[in-house]
Amino acid sequence: MTGWLRAAVLLPVYLAVTAALIPVQAALVALKLPGAVLFPRFYHRLTCRLIGFDVDVVGTPVRDRPALFVSNHSSYLDISVLGSVIAGSFIAKSEVADWPLYGLLAKLQRTVFVKRERSRTAEQADEVARRLEAGDRLILFPEGTSNDGQRVLPFRTAFFSVADRRPGGRPLVVQPVSLAYTHVRGMPMGRKLRPSYAWYGDMDLAGHLWTALTLGPARVELVFHPPVTIDDFKDRKALARHCEQAVSAGVAQALQGRSTAALALIGQALAQRGPAVEGGALQVAEEDEPLDPQEIDAAEGDGTSEDVPA
Length: 310
Description:
GO molecular function: 1-acylglycerol-3-phosphate O-acyltransferase activity
Protein name: 1-acyl-sn-glycerol-3-phosphate acyltransferase
Oligomer: single chain
Region (Disordered): 279-310
Radius of gyration: 19 Å
Domain Phospholipid/glycerol acyltransferase: 67-182
Organism: Tistrella mobilis (strain KA081020-065)
């Protein structure tokens, strides 16, 4: 099937499925049923199947308690990728609420909309904290914007202040997540094709979606790094720095074609060694102290991953 024919078939199907499922989610939200949290995951899995995304998941997302997931961000397509694995809600800029179709979908997934005004930061952080204290799992894009998918932008630290809260009397769990679009039609994507999945700048949304659908099946690597809490760090800035470094390393490894399973297990091996603490801040072991080769071999050999069902 040629690219344009594939898109011509898939786009109407995607829109029809979305239109059919919107009333279901709207009813679940209105009635405040547990399915309001779980149903979006079903929808996003279905969306990934329709678009042709093979989501390779490494590591395990936190599921048994409130959590803040922090991920890099390159496209609106990230929503379906992350939403297919995490049963939670997103934190998004307020402009998203006015987008055609996607604004409605965001509202139905109980998205927390935030304004970029510095004067509103504390108030909006309180809203995020209330949702976490109510038991929700939230997904944050701390770069503050999307980019070309080739790198990770510096993390903004303001919303990491919610990590000081203790839902249920326990420190809030923060889990870094790396997301990378790596292959299309079974071949490494490369710098020229990756922007076809990344949506940034003044790109037209409808045209971008059409192009993505014409390209064919794509592989997306999603790495869940070991979760941490504010108690492991000197302050929220140190926590944000740790998360940025973990996410950046995961994206870089994925784009270089290295095993994400190895990456996840190597990260766990580093964590098990115990952090070096200076002045109360968590720091990774010195860069000139390499991992034991046996640890790397074990990671390559024993790493497991699970794909979103196709």
